[in-house]
Amino acid sequence: MIELAAAVLAMIAIVAVRYLAVSGGFAWLTGRRHPGLYAGERMRGQMRREIGWSLAAAAIYGAPAGLTLYAWKQLGWTQIYTDWNAHSLLWIPLSILAYLFIHDSYFYWTHRAMHRPRLFRLMHAIHHDSRPPTAWAAMSFHPWESLSGALLIPALTFLIPIHVAALGIVLTVMTFFGVTNHIGWEIFPKRWLAGPFGAAMISASHHHRHHTDYRCNFGLYFRFWDRLCDTDRGLSGELAHAPDDDDRRRAAADGRVERPS
Ligand SMILES: [Zn+2]
Ligand SMILES: [Zn+2]
C-alpha cells in the first residue's frame, strides 16, 4: 500500500515538475523571441490562473499514471516491456504511431463533444478563458476535462504493448505539442507549414485558430480528423504569416546587400 501511495505521489510530482519546467522554458523563450507577447496586467492574471489550473491538472494526470507505474512494476499487469527483443523492432515506431493516432482520435472526439453548450460550460470553458493562450495554458483544464484526458494513455498501456522508451517518446511528443500549440507564436518555419509536415500536423498556427474561432480545428497532433470531418479551417493568419527565422535571415541578407560598401 505504501508503494502504491509512493508511486502516485511520485508521478504527481513528476507531472507537475515537467509542466513547470517545459511551460516555464517556453515562456522564457517567448520572452526572448517575442518580448511583450505575454505582457500586461491582464495577461499576468491569466497566466496565474493557467498555472493554478495546470497544477491541479498535474495531480489528476499524475494519479492514474502512478497507478499504472505500480501495476507495471509491482504487479506486471501492463503491456509495457523493456526487452528490445520482446516484439519486432518495427513495432517500436508502429506502437508510437498507434498510441499517437488513438490519442489524437480520442482527443478530437471528446474535444468536439466538449464544445456542445452544456459540456462546454461544465468542462471546457476554463481552457478557453485563455485569450490568447500562453505556454502556461498547456494543462489549464477544469478537473472534469483533466479527468477525461488523464485516463487514456494509462488505459492503453494495459491493452497495447509498448517499449518503455517508445512510451517515453509518446509522452515527450504529448508534452511538446501540449505546450507549443499554446505559445502564441509559430515554432516551425513557414516552409515546413507549407509542405507535407504542415498539411498533416497541428502546430500553434492551427490550434491558435481553435482558440479564436472555437468551432473548428479540434485535433491535437494530426489534421486527419479535422480534414475528414470538415472542421479544418486552416491556420491562424496572425501566426502563420508572422516573420520566421528564414524571413529574418533574408531581411538581414538584403540589408547587407543594400548597405553601401
Ligand atoms: Zn476547445
Ligand atoms: Zn487549447
UniProtKB/TrEMBL annotation:
Subcellular location as annotated: Membrane
Cell inner membrane recorded as keyword: no
Record Pfam families: FA_hydroxylase
Domain (Fatty acid hydroxylase) ranges: 97-231
EC number: 1.-.-.-
Transmembrane residue ranges: 6-30, 51-70, 90-109, 149-177
Keyword line: Membrane, Oxidoreductase, Transmembrane, Transmembrane helix
A GO molecular-function descriptor: oxidoreductase activity
Top EC class of this enzyme: oxidoreductase
Keyword flag Transmembrane: yes
Domain of life of the organism encoding this protein: Bacteria
Start and end residues of each stretch annotated as Disordered: 240-261
Record PANTHER family: STEROL DESATURASE
Name of the protein this chain belongs to: Sterol desaturase family protein
Lineage of the species this protein comes from: Bacteria, Pseudomonadati, Pseudomonadota, Alphaproteobacteria, Sphingomonadales
